[in-house]
Specification:
Three copies of one chain form a homotrimer. Chain A is elongated. In chain A, about 30% of the residues lie in helices and about 20% in strands. Chain A has an eight-stranded mixed sheet with strand order 1-10-12-11-13-16-14-15, sandwiched between helices. Mean pLDDT of chain A is about 95; it is low at about 1-20 and about 450-455. Chain A has helices spanning about 25-35, 45-55, 120-125, 155-160, 205-220, 240-245, 280-295, 310, 345-365, 400-410, 415-425, 425-440; strands at about 60-65, 70, 75, 80-90, 95-100, 115-120, 125, 150, 165-175, 175-185, 190-195, 230-235, 255-260, 270-275, 295-300, 320-325, 370, 410-415, 445. In chain A, helix 7 (about 280-295) crosses helix 9. In chain A, strand 11 (about 190-195), helix 5 and strand 12 (about 230-235) form a beta-alpha-beta unit. The interface of A and B includes residues 127 and 336 of A.
């Protein structure tokens, strides 16, 4: 069988894109982010469709449409929202707030409006962030009919007592919820789920970066023949994952591991939020990779707020899905403002996020449980050229240590990930040792792989 | 059903007495301590009866009498001790040690004596604390016939070579062991046990404070209709709890939680000693309350010395009973000396001990296990007015977080206390969230409540 | 029954040798080390036989001979190696490297050679430690035909471009692998295994110290009637323990506890490496003893490199065998060099190693599980003279605490070692308390002793 990683398994955090240039993947991801940035996305509507069309240039995903009014668990697929134009004009006819300048200016899902209003009435529909007076906030009102504009607090303070023309040329009517799905069949039916939200308008880190990462992981997997099947979801946040889970409930039993991707382009360190189970294989694989790379990182326990892991980890599903981020939502000052722009997203951060995600998938792919075929005492490694022929030296070799660890713990009850954790050696070294032992007939894959699983508390 | 706590559950560490004055409860407790202080109590005799009569003015407890000679497990109810007068006179006829001045002066359970003795012989019956030369120690000899006097070491050093008249007008004869019991029937037969020792003579913190706390908790519970039944024991230390356990062995299966109360009036921080099980619900409820209040506190593991938890936690019972104290026995310098007087006990400390105990009972009362009735994905809280209608804001609200936690963990396997622990939110917030979810039909009490129980190791 | 420890169990780290002199045991051990030091040992050959003969003067062990070519699991017993003479001569005929001066000079298991070689060719057969330029390293080539000399790096640097006569008068031919075994039958068939390697030439700490410790432990046990049977193995490293395990596979089920002894004579603190199980009774007994003594110590988790615990803890056996050392292999600068000489080994360290090992065996011997025969409430200890008759004192006595702990936890599920761990009292105190309680009919040995066992993960 073939692995999704490079042929040198000790090198599994280095990623080589098709053209062989490691750093290029970040630049390619950034280009996709640039292409998607101008579009006014929401949880439904043409912005989502347009975005999925752009993604399709890179990845042959399937676009699904679910009609408004469809019951999905406790929710109903909402009406479809589309918008063409929106502004506030002062008495001179000057557009002082204009959707054309930034799609953040409109309260997302605003109902249509065309009225002349006093400043006082207008203010009830204006949203600002006083603590960040230069920035336009991003605000939504998906599930309550409302209209509004978002603007910088500094501009807000300049508004004069006067009358204003407000105009929002939007529509909210029966239509569809649209999402993208890409499935790559692997050797087995067991699935790895990669999910990312696609509902945010012109915000780069949250979450065009996540979209780009998912696209390029899928593209890269396409060049391999992975053991697992992989399912990529590009859905509007919350309502999209609820829709998918509702339509694919039976399917979820196949999901063995999963990651939600979000905010992966900023310059912060990697942050991982564990699945509700807390020690699912995905949680341990992520931590192993982050530890192995040596770079700073942070790991949080699960909590039921954040991104779509909220749905995947709801008690009725409790799927082993964690959330892979750089700086988490709400923790970078640009979060949900006009400052989350193309400047915030760095190609080297995108490359690093890609490399680490790839290394995580690599651990999942390679993590198997073996039987030591010579379990009584050590086998004679020296005879097989696997062990130093000169005895008595002070320092053994890491490769020898790794082989001894694999032999010692391969009793059918410890996966390679277990062994890496217990030995405190990097996963690639452990995996490499296992490969050499397999080649020499000393190790056999456990017939019934007893992958470490914990169904949480 | 009605709860013992105030109607505002987020306010469960504030206690309101009948007259509505929070601080008054400490003053009322202190008044009871004043009334009880002068009496010479012991493990049997009229001092205990007199004390229980005073308590009866506040609480309609039942007084039980168990005859001397009754076999109670490995013990036998001892003879009843009573004392009227005791002194040591010098040759001039002056009473140099006088029971009338302090009932600590007599070795508790002294046999009667009337003799003229040399200083040398007298000294074999004198007890002092050289390290605290001004204080009269409290000493007992319940189970070995002996007589003696306790006095300050400074006075001891002034005793001249001479002859002394010693006189103890006590009696030690068949009679009864006396204890008080108060039972409040709740909705269920499951019981909470509150036990306190009543055998110490004029010592205020140890343990008139514990008696006062038990009395006022019982009075306060009387004004509510609690879920649990509550049993309050006012027994002589060791022999009293052994007697009760011996006479009520079958009964003990109903005890789901328990607290021994002692030394709750000094100005030290709260100290909790866990039950033998170590993570019984009572242990976790106490720690949750102490954590929620934000004030300093200390928690110790169980050890088989201390107060009556020694008996409740003996291996043949292993009841989930911890010990709630301020400064523990032996750790405050006034312990078991004449300095453990009415000055040591502070009304604000008594109030605080009451408030925290009440909050603990409140957690026990409210701690239930629920099922999320919409366990697949989150239910749509916004539709029900339970969630902010404007999306995209950086900071969620604690109430929303609490509801999401309750929904996420209410799988029939996590109690509200489990959820408070895991979410790191205060119990009252979690409970309040559960109430709101119940009101909106999103949560149901688990039919067979699976309260977290650990039967220890 | 009789215990291997001295009659005063609270004194179980003090050891008295036959002549009653505690310190003498270290001197006696050192004398044995002196006697063994000059011999050129290897994994086979006359050096091992000669060494076992010297040990036999102290301990009536049995010498076993296993023929070359015998299949032992994945290995084959190698040819027997013997050596008489070896040197390198320069052109002047001077022996510049001479086996007679140090048996470390010859690469252990060198094949015979008699040749004139250039400096360049010679250098391919020379072994030095550049970082320790004064020392001769110890090197071996057991499983690959090779010849070589070890010398100080300083001498190596002085070698001139020239021709050299090399001569090794060794033989490598069918013969035997030789090892020693000493078995002491105890009350039960359950065994404690003590294993030590005997294959190193003139190296004192590694591992003549381990040999001496094993010999004197065995001698000392001979003076007692232990509960366990004891098996002492004196085997060549790796191949010897593999041979023994192969020949005695069925036997291994009897091994309940085991220690590998190595490097126990240097002046470093005690280091213990846990068994693969990690919390076997031997692991906990060692840690308890080290904690009780109050001296600094270090405990490491198991890893599959080190001494013969590698074989005993291979997954097919997974025996509860840890490794008892002072400074571990590779961690003292003299390790595997000519500086590991008789100066490195200190009699007081040997005495201390002996005392602590003895205390460990003592804990194993005494660690039983009991039932409190009066489990409901405390029994009345005072009546039996086991408890202070004067009550009210601030400080209890350690003996009383120990009895209360033993009573509280003796529910048939906690061994004395469990109780010592949980109470934080020294094992001897707990054991002594148990003895007193047995004497007073308050404790009974659990019929089916449920010794805490963990079969690891």
């Amino acid at each position: 069988m073939s692995h999704p990683a490079s042929s040198n398994p000790s090198d599994n955090t280095k990623v080589v894109t098709r053209n062989g240039d490691t750093s290029a993947v970040g630049e390619e991801m950034l280009q996709l982010i640039h292409d998607l940035f101008p579009i006014c996305r929401s949880i439904t509507g043409s912005g989502v469709r347009e975005s999925l069309e752009i993604i399709k240039r890179h990845l042959a995903l399937e676009v699904r449409e679910v009609p408004s009014g469809t019951r999905i668990f406790d929710w109903i697929v909402p009406k479809e929202w589309n918008i063409r134009e929106a502004y506030v004009k002062d008495l001179t006819g000057r557009k002082i707030i204009d959707f054309q300048k930034s799609n953040l200016h409109v309260l997302n899902y605003s109902i249509p409006v065309c009225a002349k209003v006093s400043l006082k009435d207008l203010k009830e529909h204006l949203y600002t962030v006083p603590e960040q007076p230069d920035l336009i906030p991003y605000r939504t009102s998906y599930y309550k009919d409302n209209w509004g504009f978002c603007l910088s607090h500094n501009q807000f303070l300049t508004l004069q007592e006067s009358e204003y023309d407000v105009f929002i040329d939007s529509s909210l009517q029966d239509g569809h919820l649209t999402y993208g799905e890409y499935f790559l069949k692997g050797e087995t039916d067991s699935e790895v789920l990669i999910s990312t939200h696609i509902c945010h308008p012109s915000l780069a880190n949250d979450n065009l970066s996540g979209i780009a990462l998912a696209v390029f992981l899928a593209r890269h997997l396409n060049q391999h023949s992975p053991r697992y099947s992989y399912r990529f979801l590009f859905t509007p946040g919350t309502i999209g994952s609820i829709t998918w889970l509702s339509l694919n409930e039976a399917q979820t039993a196949r999901i063995k591991h999963g990651l939600v991707l979000a905010c992966v382009g900023d310059s912060g360190k990697i942050t991982y939020k564990k699945s509700r189970r807390g020690d699912a294989e995905i949680d341990r694989a992520v931590i192993q990779v982050l530890k192995d790379t040596g770079a700073p990182y942070e790991v949080f326990d699960f909590s039921p707020y954040g991104y779509d892991e909220r749905q995947f980890c709801s008690p009725g599903f409790n799927l082993p899905v964690g959330c892979f981020m750089r700086t988490p939502h709400g923790k970078f000052p640009e979060y949900h403002t006009s400052a989350d722009d193309l400047e915030l997203v760095r190609p080297e951060s995108l490359t690093d996020s890609f490399a680490k995600c790839w290394a995580i998938l690599d651990v999942l792919e390679r993590n198997k449980t073996y039987f030591n075929l010579s379990p009584k005492c050590e086998p004679q490694l020296g005879r097989r050229g696997l062990y130093s022929q000169i005895g008595g030296q002070k320092d053994g070799k890491l490769q020898e240590f790794a082989m001894l660890w694999v032999l010692n713990l391969s009793d059918g009850k410890h996966s390679l990930l277990d062994i890496a954790e217990r030995s405190n050696l990097v996963f690639a070294l452990i995996h490499n040792a296992a490969q050499r032992l397999i080649e020499h007939g000393l190790l056999n894959e456990a017939a019934e792989p007893t992958r470490t699983e914990d169904f949480g508390a």
